[in-house]
Specification:
Shape: globular
Radius of gyration: 24 Å
Structural class: alpha/beta
Number of strands: 32
Bound molecules: coenzyme A, adenosine monophosphate
CATH class of the largest domain: Alpha Beta
Strand content: 15-25%
CATH topology of the largest domain: Rossmann fold
CATH superfamily of the largest domain: ANL, N-terminal domain
Number of helices: 18
Length: 635
């Protein structure tokens, strides 16, 4: 007997046009598409060409028109400001329409870009939806990035307007955003015409006359704007993510495929019904925030939680249980690191006893490998399914998971369960040939990719082809390595490039190396990710100094740590570096990062045959030990 997962999965692979064509019926179209899938310009797949729709209409107005106007669309829960505020679908539509009016009055039109650099406040969601309403393309930049990272994104997207706020709040620390924005604008060459600033009551920013506008004043003057129909294939947003070099990649998402896919996943993967409460404890600056704080839950007619706080410290390790109980959350999505943080503070889960979680149905985790300890702890504590699912900024939704809305498979530790419908996953060897079950290789998806995935990189079709489509022709390269077992369960083991995952945040070690290499005393450097009990991975740096440098190494280390913080941001969590005499390399000069990483994590490693001088690895091991890594077993 087949189950619903198998039915959906088979049809989605055998006849993607029919499968996604049926799913598209759940979305309101201004004009129906000419065809579901246009694959005539492979690998640039276009979903629903000829179709016209508006994503904001589908996320808000449609629900108001169908009687959900008084249901909460968004609940802003901010322990850091002591605020809980609900927006009904009607209220969120009205605010968004007004904000779209603000943008329109500033000359923003369909296709124009708007950069959003904001903390987790409702105005961030309103700004995103306001852009979608006008057919403008938003590019949200995570608040934890430093000015140079923001500047690079501004230059690439060339926005007409930047939307920001006076400050963010990190637990009990106020972070003024405006100076960061000013520093970024000073560096950027593509200067926006206008900046819209939300003045938060705890800190007011100084506005630059003629360029900056106060959000509240602009809203008071604005007339609401209708939804502008756009082509299904028009971009909805750009979201920059770490690439293998210091330059981030602008992932482009379309309107039509995105709306159809996210609507489908809310039911199929998360098992959500309209009217229920869904919570993605992430940040609007990440893909999880785009897909499952903003668009997914609203497209489905759910209530979404916008949480401005942390799993611990705001005020304690019971914060997540409080939010779930208080708002009747059915399904929580976060990163394993958040659960490790809670487990560390409240290992016996005593805080949980204070709250009624009887309506809570499932916990979904993603962003990094889910370690078995955390999985078991969460299972025991919560008594609900704990689901590991695997995805990427590029894909916008899960490549593999346990699709609770279709069929709940038994959980296997270390596995993200099965490929989601739409994903024809394969494991390939270095020769591009499929590997048998159980063997580790490159995880790739056969084309066409399902709707809602990246359509290209912003202004960079060549980069799109090079990064994802060229190495394995006919397939999308995920840059993750892993295997699929005899029963079709997917195991994601590691990245095949220089990306590391720090507290669920994706970072490029190459980008950090570029910063270190800029220090005047550094001749050579290497950054790699080592295991961390809380954050999963953290970066550590090795520095080789230029001949003749006689400044104290500790001072140089302090300086490079500060440089990474200033140039990439606090989010990089770059707090450890050490000076070594030399770096271990192959005879052809490649730094043996993988070997250093294994030594640091105390994993088995072999002396590489191509190493030019084996003694260097001993020096590196000693350096790692002095930093608290590479501990002998049992130490
Ligand atoms: N604006 C400014 N600074 C920010 C920021 C923001 N939006 N977000 C994080 N930072 C800063 C933090 O304050 C911290 O600064 P510090 O080094 O001065 O302490 C630094 O960036 C690192 O942040 P983070 O990695 O989040 O570590 P943390 O110690 O503050 O918190 C956790 C650890 C586990 C509680 C936290 O990472 C967490 O909640 N993770 C959830 C996972 C998540 O949201 N993943 C997203 C994908 S699902
Ligand atoms: P991001 O683009 O920030 O979502 O990061 C994507 C990367 O995070 C993936 O390529 C994986 O390396 C990693 N990742 C995400 N989810 C999982 C998971 N469930 N298991 C293992 N790794 C994951």
């Amino acid at each position: 007997m087949t189950n619903r997962y198998e039915e959906d999965y088979r049809l989605s692979i055998r006849d993607p046009e029919r499968f996604w064509g049926t799913q598209a019926e759940a979305i309101d179209w201004h004009r129906p598409c000419d065809r579901v899938l246009d694959d005539s310009r492979k690998p640039f797949t276009r979903w629903f060409p000829g179709g016209e729709l508006n994503t904001c209409h589908n996320a808000l107005d449609r629900h108001v028109a169908r009687g959900r106007g008084r249901q909460a669309a968004l609940i802003y829960d901010s322990p850091v400001t002591g605020t809980v505020r609900a927006y009904t679908y009607e209220a969120l539509r009205d605010e968004t329409a007004r904000f779209a009016g603000v943008l329109a009055a500033l000359g923003v039109r369909r296709g124009d870009r708007v950069v959003i650099y904001m903390p987790m406040i409702p105005e961030a969601v309103i700004a995103m939806l306001g852009c979608a309403r006008l057919g403008a393309v938003h590019s949200v930049v995570f608040g934890g990035f430093a000015p140079p990272e923001l500047a690079v994104r501004i230059d690439d997207a060339a926005p007409k307007v930047v939307v920001s706020a006076s400050c963010g709040i990190e637990v009990n620390r106020l972070i003024p955003y405006k100076p960061l924005l000013e520093a970024a604008l000073a560096r950027a060459s593509a200067k926006p015409e206008r900046c819209l600033i939300v003045q938060r009551p705890m800190h007011r920013a100084e506005l630059t006359p003629g360029r900056d506008l106060d959000w509240e004043e602009a809203m008071a003057r604005a007339a609401p704007h209708e939804c502008v129909p756009v082509r299904a294939t028009d971009p909805l947003y750009i979201l920059y993510t770490s690439g293998t070099t210091g330059l981030p990649k602008g992932v482009v998402r379309d309107n039509g495929g995105h709306a159809v896919a996210l609507h489908y996943t809310m039911g199929a993967i998360y098992g959500m019904q309209p009217g229920e409460v869904y919570w993605a404890a992430s940040d609007v600056g990440w893909v999880v925030g785009h897909s499952y704080i903003v668009y997914g839950p609203l497209l489905k007619g759910c209530t979404s939680i916008l949480y401005e706080g942390k799993p611990v410290g705001t005020p304690d390790a019971g914060a997540f249980w409080r939010v779930i109980a208080q708002h009747g959350v059915r399904c929580l999505f976060t990163a394993p690191t958040a659960f490790r943080a809670i487990k560390r503070e409240d290992p016996r889960g005593e805080m949980l006893r204070r709250y009624d979680l009887s309506g809570f149905r499932a916990l979904f985790l993603a962003g990094e490998r889910l370690d078995p300890d955390t999985l078991r702890w969460a299972q025991r504590l919560l008594g609900v399914p704990v689901i590991d699912h695997w995805w990427q900024t590029e894909t916008g939704w899960a490549i593999a998971g346990n699709c609770l809305g279709l069929h709940a498979f038994p959980v296997k530790e270390g596995s993200a369960t099965k490929p989601a419908p739409g994903w024809d996953l394969q494991v390939l060897g270095p020769d591009g040939q499929p590997l048998p079950p159980g063997q580790i290789g490159a995880l790739v998806a056969r084309l066409p990719l399902p709707p809602g995935t990246l359509t290209t990189l912003w202004n960079n079709d060549a980069g799109f082809l090079k990064s994802y489509m060229e190495e394995f022709p006919g397939c999308y390269k995920t840059a993750d390595a892993g295997f699929i077992d005899e029963e079709g369960y997917v195991y994601v083991m590691s990245r095949t490039d220089d990306i590391i995952n720090v507290a669920g945040h994706r970072l490029s070690t190459g980008a950090m190396e570029e910063v270190l290499a800029d220090h005047p005393d550094v001749a050579e450097c290497a950054v790699l990710g080592v295991e961390d009990p809380l954050k999963g991975q953290v970066p550590i740096g090795f520095l080789v100094l230029k001949a003749g440098v006689d400044r104290p190494p500790e001072q140089i280390v302090r300086e490079v740590i500060q440089m990474v913080r200033d140039r990439i941001g606090a989010v990089a969590s770059f707090k450890t570096a050490t000076v070594v005499k030399r770096l271990p390399k192959t005879r052809s000069g490649k730094i043996l990062r993988g070997t250093i990483q294994k030594i640091a994590d105390n994993r088995p490693w072999k002396m590489p045959a191509t190493i030019d001088d084996p003694a260097i690895l001993e020096e590196i091991r000693e350096a790692l030990q002095s930093l608290g890594y590479a501990k002998p077993q049992g130490a």
